[in-house]
Amino acid sequence: MRDLKSARIPESNTKGLRLRVQLLFGLFLALLGTAFGRAVYLQVFQQEKLRGLAQDQYVRQIDIPARRGDIFDRRGTPLAQSVEVDSIWVDPSMLPNVPQAARQLARAVHLDGNDVAARLSRAKRFAWVKRQAKPQEVEAVKALGLPGLGFMKEPKRFYPQRELGAHIVGMVGTDGHGLEGLELAFEDELSGQNSRTSGFRDAKGRKLMVQGALDPLERQGAAVTLTLDRHLQYVAEKALAKAVDDAKAVAGMAVVLDPRTGELLALANNPRFNPNTPEDGVKNAIRNRAALDAFEPGSTMKAFVVAAALEQKTITPDTLFFCENGAFRIGRHTVNDTHPHGWLNAQGILQVSSNICAAKVAEALGREKMVAAYHAFGFAERTGLALTGESRGVIPFPKSDISLATQSFGQGMTSTAVQLAAAYGALANDGVLMRPYLVSRVVDPDGVVLLENQPTELRRVVSQRVARQVVGMLESVVVKGGTAPKAAMDDYRVAGKTGTAQKADPVARGYSDKRIASFAGMVPAEAPRAVILVVVDEPKTDVYGGNVAAPAFKEIATAAMAHLAVPPSRTVAPAEVAAAAAPVVPPPAPKALAKAVPVRAGLEVAVTETPEPGTVRVPDVQGQAGREAVVKLLAAALEPQLQGSGRVVSQTPPAGALVEKGARVTLELATRQ
């Protein structure tokens, strides 16, 4: 009999299977939907981000540095240029032995092995071996055959004239940015615009340019043309170096200026440095003293005081002043002349450089008018040479009589060498002050003129008549009887003025025994084509401008006249020379005043302070034994107080201080080891 129960289909199992299939189908459908949604999200909403991430793995933006613009002198001679050189880099991860490779690379590029090893050990995939390497160093590195080496072309600044004009041109750093001089002042114009282009990076990280080479004109800086003349710059630097060496001085400056246009034809400094190897130079040698530093100009300022007094009709060329036979008391100070003189007119004051009579001219002129005249000649204002850090100088208002006197002969005020040369240029240019300038043109690679300087009249300082009168007076300075006969030339008439200034001591707040010797001259005197200023800082062998600076002026002037093709002056008759050097006949005066005093030997201090009654100067007892120092202080009416034993190593108050009689002076003594 058929078993109907066993033939029945199990409904419960069929339903369970269907349910499981539906669940699996739903699950797969959900997963497929999620994947599809994720794909849509990534492809649509995250498209740009993912594309950027992908490109970052193989596409690189390559910076193409601009070729720095050239700097030329007035005749087109290059003073600064840029050349393409190789910089060496390495992927340290590819080196089998980093310390050994570092030693090999250091020997090839002449660097310290420890420094190279430290840089390679810190880096993962990139490290500089040496930037802007020399060709022989590049070949030596290639010969090593090390893996992971790379070479990149970079522009390097090159100065074909080496030291010539280096202080004006300046220099750049390893990164190609200006550090000093015109390289810094015209950084934006010279540097140009860096370019960026796309390139691929291969598996080794090497950059491959895909857009081809860019137009070099698109990445080149502007060219700068100067007013400097390479030949005159060479002559000025050579003559200045000889003057500094002969005088055993610490530094020197020289300026050659065209008074008709204000163009600076030469701007020399000493000591010199080579901008191609600035690391070999002394830090102080890099500073452009002639354009940036201010100093007390000394007696070269007397010409402007006389010119202002003549212009204001305070004096005439025949007005006589009594020079007090070499010593003139003003309050508790005494103004001194190097040599004693009696009666002098304006020409005689300039010829023998009398401090006393210059002070009397300033007194007759007045404080306000003298300061106004200095400002009119361009002092205490920047000349605008476009050099960073240019000083403006200082002309304090002379509130006291002694300040008025000292400023009349260039002490108690400061000036730059360019300011001083430009002021003499005003006298040489018939009384018109021209703006001195150094940069003639700045032109971009397309020929567009970005900057162009032209001769610019600033103002008329004195009349043509007064300017020519003063220039004529200054001719007497270079003849026999003047302070600078060594500046006289055989074929050209010369006018000029010497200066010997005391240097201020900022520590002692007074003047030291150091000097600045200078000579400012113009040639030819009848129609000046060049104003030449020579300044020698701290000469040792001789301190007078007529002996230290005047010979260098003559050497520069001789070369300048030949180079500029200036015809010789008319012959100066002996009678004219004798007349220029003849002493002034004084008016009737007491014999005691007119009597000549013998010339005093040695260096005269321009201003000395006269002790008031009841005061005394502390004598110098440094290095003396204790007993000797006590005797010397007691003789000066001072009370000594000793600390220690042996010889004096310090004293308080210092030597030269003005104190009351009976004041206590503390001496510190020590025994020499």
TrEMBL record:
Keyword Protease among UniProt keywords: yes
Domain of life where this protein originates: Bacteria
Signal peptide: none
Database matches in InterPro entries: Beta-lactam/transpept, Beta-lactam/transpept-like, PASTA_dom, PBP_dimer, PBP_dimer_sf, PCN-bd_Tpept
CDD domains assigned: PASTA_Pbp2x-like_2 (cd06575)
SUPFAM superfamilies: beta-lactamase/transpeptidase-like, Penicillin binding protein dimerisation domain, Penicillin-binding protein 2x (pbp-2x), c-terminal domain
Native source organism of the sequence: Corallococcus aberystwythensis
Entry keyword Chaperone: no
Main localization, broad class: membrane
GO BP terms in the entry: cell wall organization
Limits of the PASTA domain: 610-671
Subcellular location: Membrane
The entry's keywords: Carboxypeptidase, Hydrolase, Membrane, Protease
Matching Pfam families: PASTA (PF03793), PBP_dimer (PF03717), Transpeptidase (PF00905)
Entry's Gene Ontology cellular component terms: plasma membrane
Protein name stated in the entry: PASTA domain-containing protein
GO MF terms held by the record: carboxypeptidase activity; penicillin binding
